[in-house]
């Protein structure tokens, strides 16, 4: 049995001094605001599909979260900044009240972006005052900690969402100037061993962790081997060129059905860009674009020639599964993934300003590159206890029909890069930075 | 046979001096721009349903129309302002090329509103230069005239569209301050006679008219009687209170099917606002809102108590037909409508800044209030000749499955208020300012 | 002004002796039953799309019609054969009560076919008794007459529906052995003149006619020319080979949108059969099948090689319109059609047992071949009065969004082959025997 | 660690004498045929939704399975009974070829039921000849064994499918006369303990088992308690009466979304029958019918008053999950279920001719009553090896988005009642006999 270790070690939540918490709160809030500095008010309102939320909505919703779960609860005299915001910016908390329809978030032109910025200032200031005045209230500290991590999750969502939105503009605008070194070099794929036996899975440290990562519990694993790095664009292109998208034998039944739907959507498909422009029409991952006899990839840095050694991103579970089947391999379970990471000696990934996967460090084989699909359905660990109160809706009610992704992506907060972190999406979704790690 | 007369008399297009044309062009262009003066960039990008286009798109498309049909055709050295605009702002002209998907126009955050304003300046200036340099080219003059009328049509669409978009904001924002006098007084309904026999229908003057209003031709009409004014809110409320929306006997089969779809859409229905808030749940026209035991109506001047003597607007053909059936009456044909208007002596309606129906003049019984549904399907007059060239797609290809509306609404250009003008929409559509005139 | 004449002359309904009426009733009832003699119970229950009803349902519904409108009304002691039939076999009469969902008619396995046959015997017998006992009741006679024509309409529907159902069987079964002479010879197309002026339109005789054919009224027509025969398969194939289905310039906007939907449906499309099997994939009319480098056509006599001189059938309004546009021609209005037929001297078509268009007589240029699309939307004639009572739902409530077809098809009752008869379908529908007559 | 034991012990497949195998084959084939003895040809063709197949299709498909996987493979001279059957009756084996669209299986009126019966005779006879002539071929024996179990699975499906089909008939026909004793008495609910530690899960005996039950492998379980019996109708009714269907706090997010869809479907919903007839409109499980102030339940024995002590059936995963949450409990995992069954000493359930759950024996708490939802997503066991060849499509490709159900229902073959058997359905499906076992 391997010695468990969390990839990122943090202080116990209870031990963090209030001044530190206040400072982190302000930093994270400022960081969110800096993300929209290059966006116009029109950009900030884009909603390209129901799964996606406008940047402005993320800015407001994260403030609403602090307001609703902390200010309204712990400040007797608190009056909401604007009552209609409680309807507009409640995401899915039925315990709080009705919600503005999710698929219409792109229709909220008012409040304006600057009014939302004013809302943010108001909330941040009120939170700091509350933290000062009730410095010894652990319940508040815990909720602020949750709110910070919640906001960091929305920083990531804001980036994945705006990428999807800007992609619908035929000029393929760059969200941020391209600063990455090119091209990448080939990296060897090695197979890491997992020993048969019991492995402890789940978070057990003193820092912050979500309810769904707990409690830590033993899982019996069979002997297995896990790839040391992610699948590259070039490797996946070989699958495409071998007619992988045309051959049902590699695909899950649901995956093949999804694929036929995309084919009939034609130019409306999320796989749209390659349908009509390749010599022989084919499908390809979201954001791949075929132009002038060449493959390009849309990134937050704009449209770039596809780099064959760069990690593949934006495949869904069906594509990941079909690719693995094509090779006679499989995807790992979330337990295998966590067990093998616990064996590594990894340092915290550091931000490099890149918003597309790179391969500069061994660390980046696991974190800060692309989320990695596992075959594990998202469900409760034995003894799972949801967060208390209305925050209990945070994770638990989504435990059906979704798959766990492990690791973290190039746009994930580094504070979420821990071995026990569980991300989850539906099998058909690919707009997150999702990649493939193989197992056998 | 009655003496035909056009409600609005204009000079022959060919006779208009270029300086006058240039001046009118500039006025109309400026008028369009003034319409968005109260809108933010976020407002200007709203698209609440596929039928609706963002205000910014209207601003750009009307410029694209002049650029494509005049500048590209008649100025040898002309280079498009931006090639991608020819894809983004082409509405439906297959003869020109592919079009950006209509239902995604709300995703065009770039170009920005100010870039589009720059585009507008560029086009207006280039047009004025062309008109000066080729003052004696009647083909250009005719196309500029068409472009002016096209832009006036889009001024109206911009207003009907932004109304629909802002309605989706739970704060019911006013597009423009409310300046109208309240309340309205009751107006008597009289029945105007149409004589049996031949009536000449269609445009025959020297001014501008669309291809679909021509040629003028005789139509044999039976004896009939037409209401002297439109149906009011109060009259329609009596239909609602008599369970008109619950009784299939009044409805066309397609109308009843449409109604059942709306019922099952529940709060997603376009009839959403009244479903759950009335004492006994019922349906009601688009933009009616029931709050605190009272009916309100959303207008471009904001939410206002429903005025019982004001003309009803925003009903679709099915609602108009059911209301008439409930009374044992019917809607007029477009020929009856035009014949009876030719009998009136009407002056040109003048703009009063109101963006909701009023009843201040006899003229407003016919024009400048609400479009009036007729039972006439939109089709070609005998001998119909479409505009030449690509502009032939302007009207002809829409001649199926739509109904003709006559008159004009409170947001229609007064230059379109003529007895021969034919507007057309699908039977289920109600977001235009559409009302009911009865016949028997 | 031309001398009006109905193509088929009948005695006044009031004058028909009861014995004659009884005999005709029994003949028509028996004729319906003979239509299903080659069908198994499984065949008789097929429903391939919501528009289509199972043969068994037609057998039962026509009996329900007589039971509900006559027996329940005019026989005091009458008790329904089975109460649940009043729910199952009511087509669309809201005045009678709720209806079993139309799209689920294929799920009515009970009553069985033989129980339905028993129901038919029961109703026919009860009707004959009623006719004898109340021989002098003109209201009953009129309703029996209506019921006979109603049943004849359903004989035609039964055949068009079973054709659509059996087509979904990959063995392309023949409904009836093929007895027609082959191949057809070319027929010259001539242009028949319509004089400008008033023409009387609508039924005016003493025989039976539907409410929607009345009252007869004058219509002013412009000079026009109408084709003397229908478009052939060979002529339409030239349109296909000229990429008619790929070129939007020929199509109505709604038609082009319909076409794109069919393309994305792929093999699920009603145009399915030709999509993947032609050298260059194309679309083609419903029931055309491309196999082994050759075009075939599915008919009620089975799959047969496409005959180039045979009249084209099973195109919808969009296809008919696009074909006419491709030639620079147009379709006629229903008034032009009726006016030109009134000029002909035509005898009643006689049944020849063929269930596919033939060209053996001049008569067949107009009747007993294929319904002919007109550009006239289906609406009420001036002074239209619906049938009284619940039968008022028979025609009137369908007067929206449909197009009038004139003539009659190879499977229409010869008693419906009159110049004033108005059939009506939606523009996208093609499963009726619908063809093209050109005008200019 | 508990002592594993399979609920049903069988001889090793390899050891079964051919004569015994032949006899079992003939028995199972005859048993399938006896299931349709009360069905008309029309009944046998019903398909009420895409998930459901007609009884005739089940009869043919099970024959096609033997023909394709055995006769075509192991008899050199074998010619298919009818080539088109290979298209019509292939369920989902892409390795074999194209399939007739699943949702259109109700349109296969030809071949007739008697032709399909002839096909069955032909296949059974050919199989018996093959078994005799190649008595020592273990590959054939293994495939015949698989085919027998496959046919037994389709016997169950045939019954669940015909139940759904006949339910759509407003006369609620009984598939089979009702012979069960009434009413049931209350049974106490006890909690059975599972010890923390390793438990062996999966099939390991010598008899037949599906690939997805293997290999047997250790799973570490936490301490847990499992209910000794299923939830009853009366217990579930308390949930309904407590507004369980109106309160989002009990529901998974996907479940609540599914529920809203059902509400808007109204009378088209699968939950249709109770929507409009209860005093206060509510939802209720599939097959519950509210009539004359009383709850009824549709069963294969017809419509019967709801028995409050009878086990609840026909809830989907969302309903099962919401019910458990309402009580503050949860559903078991499939490992917990199997572990606790291994602790019982259970005999093979014997058929009693009932086609609705009963409670006559302790055995029936686990098997032969209702399938039991678990929180385990359907996925591969460590080291999973699919059946070889095309039969590899049997189970593996469905391992996404489905939930495992354990136990067996009142219409499952008793030969499938083993502790390792894994059934699987989508969370929204309820037409199988699916019930609830609680855990904590």
Beta-strand proportion of chain A: 5-15%
Query: Could you give the order of the helices and strands of chain A?
Result: HHHHHEEEEHHEEEHHEEEE
> Unreliable segments of chain A (pLDDT under 50, ≥5 consecutive)?
1-12, 267-280
From the structure provided, what is the oligomeric state, counting identical versus distinct chains?
A: homotetramer
What descriptors fit this protein?
homotetramer; 9 helices; 11% strand; alpha+beta; 440 residues
Explain this structure to me?
The structure is a homotetramer of 440-residue chains. Chain A is α+β, with helices and mostly antiparallel strands and 440 residues long. Chain A contains 9 helices and 11 strands. Chain A has helices spanning 18-35, 55-74, 85-88, 113-133, 138-167, 233-241, 253-265, 317-326, 334-343, and strands spanning 191-194, 197-201, 217-221, 224-227, 288-291, 294-299, 302-305, 371-377, 402-406, 423-426, 434-435. In chain A, the strands form 4 sheets. Chain A has a 4-stranded mixed beta sheet with strand order 10-9-8-11. Chain A has a 3-stranded antiparallel beta sheet with strand order 5-6-7, with no helix packed on it. In chain A, helix 1 runs antiparallel to helix 4, helix 1 packs parallel to helix 5 and helix 2 runs parallel beside helix 4. The relative contact order of chain A is 0.15. Mean pLDDT of chain A is 89; it is low at 1-12 and 267-280. Chains in contact: A-B, A-C, A-D, B-C, B-D, C-D. Chain A binds chain C through residues 263-266, 268, and chain C through 263-266, 268.
């Amino acid at each position: 049995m391997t010695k468990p270790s969390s990839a990122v070690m943090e202080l116990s939540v209870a031990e963090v001094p209030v001044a530190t918490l206040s400072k982190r709160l302000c930093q994270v809030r400022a960081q969110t605001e800096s993300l929209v500095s290059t966006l116009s008010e029109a950009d900030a309102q884009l909603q390209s599909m129901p799964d996606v939320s406008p940047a402005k909505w993320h800015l407001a919703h994260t403030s609403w979260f602090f307001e609703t779960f902390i200010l309204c609860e712990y400040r007797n005299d608190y009056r909401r900044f604007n009552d209609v915001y409680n309807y507009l910016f409640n995401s899915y908390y039925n315990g709080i009240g009705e919600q503005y329809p999710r698929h219409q978030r792109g229709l909220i032109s008012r409040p304006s972006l600057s009014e939302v910025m004013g809302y943010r200032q108001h909330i941040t200031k009120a939170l700091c005052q509350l933290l000062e005045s009730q410095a010894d209230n652990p319940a508040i500290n815990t909720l602020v900690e949750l709110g910070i991590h919640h906001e960091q999750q929305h920083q990531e969502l804001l980036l994945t969402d705006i990428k999807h939105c800007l992609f619908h503009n035929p000029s393929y605008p760059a969200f941020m100037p391209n600063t990455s070194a090119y091209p990448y070099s080939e990296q060897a794929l090695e197979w890491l061993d997992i020993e048969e036996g019991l492995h402890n899975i789940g978070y057990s440290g003193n820092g912050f962790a979500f309810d769904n990562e707990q409690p830590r519990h033993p899982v019996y694993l069979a002997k297995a081997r896990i790839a040391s790095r992610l699948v590259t664009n070039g490797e996946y292109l070989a699958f495409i060129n071998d007619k992988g998208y045309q051959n049902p034998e590699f695909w899950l039944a649901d995956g093949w059905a999804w694929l036929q739907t995309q084919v009939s959507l034609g130019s409306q498909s999320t796989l749209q860009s390659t349908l009509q422009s390749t010599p022989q029409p084919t499908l390809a991952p979201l954001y791949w674009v075929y132009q002038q006899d060449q493959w390009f990839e849309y990134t937050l840095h704009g449209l770039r020639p596809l780099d064959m050694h760069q990690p593949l991103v934006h495949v869904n579970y069906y594509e990941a599964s079909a690719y693995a089947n094509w090779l006679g391999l499989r995807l790992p379970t979330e337990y295998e993934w966590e067990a093998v990471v616990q064996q590594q000696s990894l340092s915290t990934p550091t931000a490099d300003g890149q918003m597309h996967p790179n391969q500069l460090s061994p660390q980046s084989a696991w974190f800060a590159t692309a989320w990695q699909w596992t075959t594990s359905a998202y469900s409760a660990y034995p003894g799972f206890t949801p967060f208390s109160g209305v925050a209990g809706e945070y994770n638990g009610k989504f435990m059906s029909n979704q798959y766990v992704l492990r690791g973290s992506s190039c746009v994930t907060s580094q504070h979420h890069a821990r071995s026990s972190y569980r991300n989850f999406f539906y099998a058909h979704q690919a707009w997150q930075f999702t990649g493939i790690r193989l197992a056998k």
